[in-house]
Amino acid sequence: MNDKVLLGTLAQARFCISHWRDFYELTKPKVVALILLTAVVGMLVASEQLPSLSVLLLSLIGIGLLSGSAAAINHVVDAKVDAVMARTHCRPIVRGRVSHLQAMLFAGLIGLVGFVVLYSGINPLTAYLTLASLVGYAVIYTLFLKRATPQNIVIGGLAGAMPPLLGWTSVTNSIAPDALLLVLIIFTWTPPHFWALAIHRKNDYAKANIPMLPVTHGVAFTKTMVLLYTLLLTAVCVLPWLAGTFSYVYLVVVTLLNLRFIQYAYKLKFHANDDTAFAMFKFSIWHLLWVFVAMLVDHFIF
Ligand code: HEM
Ligand SMILES: CC(C)=CCC/C(C)=C/CC/C(C)=C/COP(=O)(O)OP(=O)(O)O
């Protein structure tokens, strides 16, 4: 093989690799990873016995593929908005590295595989609930609510909050109140998670004409809402302990995490500097992760 052909082959290979990564990026992998953690916790907390490895794996594959599909559809629907915002203007579709058609075929394919895996390998209830979450995020939130009302993320947050219930139904084939309390935790966590970022990126959303709360109601009002939702979250996190799902170990760990979250929200409201909102957003992700790890530890050890 002469040098020119070799270089051409290497360039081709590099193109293929970056293309693969573009599709991977469409699935919002870090968000899906945290979603899967909350689903695993739902599965493991649902019964005293460990679920079989096949139920665990098939459920994770199905929920992961449908979540990734929802994220890819979000990239397609939002391509014009993403092009305007500094945070998102390098995304694969905006840059033309993936076409709308390719992204929709990809979303359709992984979504279909995910649904079939859940329907045939787990149970129809889980398959339909996960599909409903996909529609909730990719269609109801992204296509309508996001552009229509500053309460977009509060209502749309229900789709992202569903995974502990999806994990739960994977194992039990039924909807239990304990599982709904885990959903309620993520539902209440979403506003402080997102509005902290929206405060940091307010100009982006204003430029893209998206009615996020800091744009429509101002930063001061949004900070008050962040503080109130953080206090509400602290109360909501007590409910699984009151219901007897977890012991005092969960309660102590989660209350400590919530006190730190309140500290961020208080600083954001009363003593913010330029970094506070983004720091709170980053902490929100670790907060949710550790809350769900605390549930697991509590369930198995105490
Ligand atoms: C409607 C509900 C939600 C909204 C509006 C929202 C919004 C966002 C936004 C705008 C980002 C920034 C992404 C970026 O930097 O490109 C983000 C990041 C993130 N979100 Fe959310 N989120 C929601 C729900 C969730 C849920 C349910 C989870 C997981 C259970 C989650 C986990 C994460 C993670 C892990 C990141 C960091 C991603 C990264 O660094 O690449 N979010 N979220
Ligand atoms: C099956 C199932 C559980 C589906 C839903 C799961 C899912 C992918 C939730 C994602 C939540 C999220 C990152 C919202 C931000 O969208 P955005 O458009 O406001 O943010 P962006 O500007 O970063 O795209």
Automatic annotation (TrEMBL):
Location in the cell: Cell membrane
Known catalytic reactions: heme b + (2E,6E)-farnesyl diphosphate + H2O = Fe(II)-heme o + diphosphate
Transmembrane segments: 31-47, 53-77, 98-119, 125-145, 152-168, 180-199, 220-242, 248-266, 278-297
A biological process from GO: heme O biosynthetic process
One GO cellular component, as annotated: plasma membrane
Keyword RNA-binding belongs to the record: no
Entry-linked Pfam families: UbiA (PF01040)
Highest taxon of source: Bacteria
Gene3D superfamilies: UbiA prenyltransferase
Pathway(s) per entry: Porphyrin-containing compound metabolism; heme O biosynthesis; heme O from protoheme: step 1/1
EC number, UniProt record: 2.5.1.141
Topology with respect to the bilayer: Multi-pass membrane protein
GO molecular function, one term: protoheme IX farnesyltransferase activity
Keywords, in A-Z order: Cell membrane, Heme biosynthesis, Membrane, Transferase, Transmembrane, Transmembrane helix
Family: Belongs to the UbiA prenyltransferase family. Protoheme IX farnesyltransferase subfamily.
Protein known as: Protoheme IX farnesyltransferase
Gene symbol of the encoding locus: cyoE
